Each structure stands twice: as C-alpha cells, then as structure tokens.
Amino acid sequence: MEQLGEGQEAEAPAATRDIEQDERYRRLVTTRSRFGWRLTIAMLVIYFGYILLIAFEPHILARPLGSGVTSLGIPLGLGVIVAGIVLTAVYVRRANKVFDRDLDALRKDYGA
Amino acid sequence: MSRLPITRAALIALALGWPAVAAADALTGQTEQQAANWPAILMFSAFVFATLGITRWAAGRVRSASDFYTAGGGITGFQNGLAIAGDYMSAASFLGISAQIFADGYDGLIYSTGFLVGWPILLFLLAERLRNLGRYTFADVASFRFAQTPVRLFAAFSTLAVVLFYLIAQMVGAGQLIKLLFGLPYTYAVLIVGALMTCYVLFGGMVATTWVQIIKAVMLLGCASFMAFAVLWNFGFSPEALFAKAVEIKTGIAAAGGASPDEAAAKGLSIMGPGGFIKDPLSAISFGMALMFGTAGLPHILMRFFTVPDAKEARKSVLWATGWIGYFYILTFIIGFGAITFVASNPDYLMPDGTLKGGGNMAAIHLATAIGGDIFLGIVSAVAFATILAVVAGLTLSGASAVSHDIYASVVKKGAANSADELRVSRYTVPVLALIAIILGIAFEKQNVAFMVSLAFALAASGNFPVLVMSLLWDGCTTRGVVIGGFVGVLLALVLTILSPAIWEAVLGYEGAPFPYSSPTIFSMTAAFLTIWLVSLADKSGRAAVDRAGYPAQRVRAETGIGAAGASDH
C-alpha cells in the first residue's frame, strides 16, 4: 500500500465527522466560501472586462477625457489596481470581524 | 565562521576590481559601459554589509529545517506582507515596466494590472487554506490527501521549472544593470549575484532571506516614491501636464524621425492608449490569464505563506502585500512617463541613433540621474541591484526546498527523514542551484527578460495553480488526475512557447511559427483543468478511493486550521 498523505495520519476520522455535522461549521464554511467566490468573480469580471476592452475596443481606452490628453484608459487601468486592493481589504475586514469569531468558537470546542 | 572569507573576497573584488575593469573597457572603446560610479558602489557595499550582518545574525537562529524553510513560522503578517511585496517587486517590475511605459506609454499599465489582480484571487481561494494545510512547500498542500511520491515529483518538477526561468530573467537583468552602472563585465556581475545569494540562503535560510527582502522592499518603495514625487512636483502635481509634455516629446521624436506632422501627432498621442503590445485578442486574454493565475502558482510566493504563525496572519500579509504592490505600480506608471519627459529627448542619455544608453531597460536609472544627479543614481542603482539579489535568494530557497523537502524527505526517505538530514540536503542544493543559475544566466545573456518572466508565469498558471485549486476545492480529485493534469499543463505551456514566434522565429530562426499566439496559457491552463477533471472522473483505482475518502478531513483542516500544527511548534 502506498504511503498516506499527512492529513490521513494526523486526523482521526471521528473528529472530522463531528465537526462536519456541526451546524456552526457548515454555516461558516458555506458563508465564507460563497463570499470568497463572489469576490473572486467580481475581480475576474473587472480584470477580464478591462482585458477584453483592450483586446477588442482599444480605441475606447485611448479616447481623451475632456479637452486634454489624459485618456479614459488611465483612470480605468489605475481603477483595476485600486479595485484589487479594495476587494482584498473587503475580504480581510469581514474575515477579521465575522469569520474569525465563529472560527474561534469552533476551535475552542474541538480543541485546537 | 566559514561564510566570511567568501564575502570578503566578493567585497574586495567589488572594491578593487570595478574601477580597473571600467578603465580597461574605456580603452577598448566599449562606450555603453560607464566608468565606475562611486556613490553606487558605496551604497551597494553598505547594503551588502548590512544584509550579510543580518545573515550572520540569522545563521545563529537556523537550527532546524523549519527555521531554514519558513523562519520557524515567526514572521508577522505585516513583515511577511512587505517581504512578499519584496519578492514580487523584482527588477523586471521596476526596470521592465518603467521601460515599457517609456517606450510605448500606456501598454506598461496592462502589465501592472495583470501582476496585481492575482493577489485578491490568491487570498479568496488559496491563502488561508494553504497556511492551514502546509508546512514548508506548496507540495505539502497539493499532496495532502494523495499518494506522496507522484504528486511530490510533479511539484518538484514544476517548482524547479518555474524557479529556473525566473532565475534566468533575474540573472540576465542583474548582469545588464551592472554592466551599465559599474563598468563591470556581464560575467563578473552574474558571478557576484550568485555568490552573494548563496551566502544569504545557505547560512541565513528563510530568516535572512525574509529580512533582506523587507529591507529591500522599504528601500525600493522609498526610492520610487521620491522619484514619482519629484516628477509630479516638476509638473505642479498635475498628471495632465505630465502626460501632455510626454505626448509633446514623443510627437517631437516622431517628427524628427521624418514623420509628417499628422503622423507625428498620432504617434505622440498613441502613448495614451493600448498599442502594439497586444497583437490579437486571444493573445491578450491568454497573457492576462498567465499574469493573474500565475501569481497564485509561483512556488517562492506560495512558500511565504508558511512563514507566518496562522491563517489570520497569512490573510493580513496578502492585504499588506497587495497594498504595497499596487502603490508601487502606480509609482512606476508616473516614473515611466517622467522618464519620457526627462530622458527621451535629452542627448546626455541617448546613443547617437536615439536609443537609450545601456539598453531599453535603463529608463528609470537615467531618470534617477536627471532628478538627483550621481548620488541619487547611485542610490537607485544599488536598490535595483539589491532587488535582484533579494529575489534571486527567495527563488533559490524555494528551489532548494523542492529538492530537499519534496524529493529527498518525502520521496526518497518516504517522510522519515530527520530535520538535520533534510537541512543538510537543502544546503548542498543551494550552491548547485546557484551554479546552474550562473551558467544559465551567462548562456541566456541576450534573452529578453520580460519574456522569461512571462514564461515563468505561464508555467505556474498551467501547472501549480490548477493542481492546487482542484486538490483543495474538489472532493472527486485523485492522485492520477492531479499528476497527469499538472504535467499536461506544464509541458503543453513549454511546448507551445517553443512553437510560438518568440522562440520558433526569434531564437531558432525558423519561419512560420506553428503556434501563432504570444502566450500559451489560455490553452495550457484549460487543458490542465480539463485533464485533472476527466482523469479523476475516470479513475477507478484503489488509490482513487483513498483520495476521495480523504477529502472531508482535508477540508475540515483547510477551513478551520484544526489539527494544523503551528509552524512555530517544533
């Protein structure tokens, strides 16, 4: 028989089953993963929206704002960078405030 | 202590060798090499002394494999965020992106956005789970519930492939930079980088590597902030005035090159929008995918998540890193446009044919002279060189851990290696990797740095990223699936790159590249995900049953950290 991964040695299956049955664990995992995927999709839409604009309609990005030379592409490009930072901050804020509190309760009960 | 003689020798070479070499080159008429720049040499020597001091201090703290790989897990989120930013703000970013903006304007921003947006994805899907499951390398996570030998072999292979291409890019960048700044031949520069980075990694392990990275990140951010501030100050803090002047100068250059007034005006304005960088829509999307998902598969970046004590600190470190990196890219955008206005029309920085002295990558370096004279040039050059050195150290550490932890401890010794033996194998591996990096750095002297970096990203996006995502998030995933799928992704990315115009036509000299696009990722990453999925579905082996049965335990630990040993417990 091939050797097992680290997890199979370290974890007693019974404890896993107990946690998995715990309503609080299920709620935490569902909420957090839904939140993570929503933010992931938001980032993908923003970035690939920008890339598709570059790929198919580059002249829109080159169009000047107002009477100067500053083009629409500059606030949009910098906006993608800022959006990345903001989405990261949104996730960390919620994780620090909400997810960690729920997680601490679980960890206390299951001795970790 | 055995490390000091090596260092002293390097420093003596540094202090004595360069002016002599520069004089010799002046005699032979190699005008692109400049005379020794003393402020740069002093600044650089100060950095080297300081970092070697840290290495010495750190060496006393590296007693176990855990100290060596992950600094014993004792790095805080803020420190790790700076170190990650340091790993990521490589010379390719600082010199390459500002040079891209200097040449084509807006196109450089496309690179910057792609390099940044991988971080949120890494945080939302992987960072905390990585910390909860792994100890030293990402392979700990990828192989968590799978058969160790095949998954570790895949992980070591793909880690070494990514690390080597990234290393070549950094070595080539270092050589070119030193050649310009210190009047030192390319080969010497590559040797010095190789020797110093061996010292840091060999003796100081992750503790020294992290602190070198933090110091360098602070220096680089400080310099870039000052340069961007000086540029904006010159234009009364009006970006519009900066852009208008840049357009005016590009128009003037085009007109001087014989373009009609209308053509020249169009050429000048072209720097404000996407240009020739994106050749066709498919390449644009594929390239975007490589940058975004490659970030989440770079082994030396993933390894940084094991240096913090828990998932919470891992999360914080991504926020810090993303903030610093984003700020840095906004600075490079200003610096690139500043270089157009200060450098592009100034004959002091140009060769007779109108190209930049020292090659296209030197735009930011010349801007430093224009802003702060030789002293500031010295500071910025030293920072740029320190940047390369620090990134190379991080990459080498990651490559060494793939050999010692994934191949030696997990495959050869079947997980029964003791910490001291594992540490010894790492230390043997470091000089070997340094030697390979030096040889490849010399062999690839003429290669385009940005291309090598994008290849490293394509490989990481096509191998490590799909393997990690599928093994973490899909219960049906099996050993056979991740190993075959991972290899398919990495090899397809390599083969398609060889068949693409950049290698097939530009390097090999054939005509009509079979693969017409500039980035393989849209095909190779998709192929990896599909292969993992299909092979796992079809896998009816006994091992597959064990793999699937292992998912709940893996998931509980990934989500909660329950059962995860703190990296600092040893």
Written account of the structure:
The complex is a heterodimer of chains A (112) and B (570). Helix content of chain A is 80%, strand content 0%. With 112 residues, chain A is mainly α. In chain A, α3 (23-56) packs antiparallel against α5 (73-109). The radius of gyration of chain A is 22 Å and the shape is elongated. Chain B is mainly alpha-helical. The model of chain B is unreliable at 1-32 and 566-570 (pLDDT under 50). Chains A and B meet through α1, α2, α3, α4 and α5 of A and α6, α10, α12, α14 and α23 of B.
Short overview:
Chain A is mostly helical. Chain A has helices at about 5-10, 15-20, 25-55, 60, 75-110. Residues about 1-10 of chain A have low confidence and may be disordered.
N-to-C order of helices and strands of chain A? HHHHH
- Contiguous low-pLDDT stretches of chain B (5 residues minimum) are 1-32, 566-570
Number of helices of chain A: 5
Kindly, what is the distance between the CA atoms of the first and last residues of chain B, rounded to a whole number of angstroms?
26 Å
Described by the principal axes of the CA atoms, the overall outline of chain A is elongated
What is the number of beta strands of chain B? 0
Instruction: Write down the Rg of chain A.
Output: 22 Å
Strand fraction band of chain B?
under 5%
Binned strand content of chain A: under 5%
| Helicity of chain A, as a percent range | over 70%
The tally of strands of chain A reads: 0
Categorize the overall geometry of chain B.
Answer: globular
Report the span from N to C terminus of chain A.
31 Å
